């Protein structure tokens, strides 16, 4: 299958974004794909963490040593995806407190910064709160993906 563009998806656990990106012929770059490689890799012997000492060192490329290790660990996996991306879709305005921990929130701030700094086309959308907003949300994503 011919892939038109590699599209980084944030938040990383959005299966809807993953599906939409694939439907338009692009390759979704998402954290679950990276985690699945590690879960299936017999070389990594530390499940459920699946983070190697090398990952922690790689995380230092994206965040200082003073940054909490959970943030650096996430960035060690997410940072390379951002670097490979030709475009990105970032959804903000998710106000549900059960949608991740404080480490996730700090990581989200870093990720948004790294995506903006990358210099690639970025579609930033607010999380929809109604059916009409959800329809507009999908239309904007479709238009963005078609323009790549």
UniProtKB/TrEMBL annotation:
InterPro entries recorded = Methan_mark_5
Lineage, top-rank taxon, reads Archaea
What Pfam families does this protein map onto? DUF2112 (PF09885)
What the entry lists under NCBIfam families is as follows: methan_mark_5 (TIGR03271)
* Name by which UniProt lists this protein: Uncharacterized protein conserved in archaea
Source organism of the structure: Methanopyrus kandleri (strain AV19 / DSM 6324 / JCM 9639 / NBRC 100938)
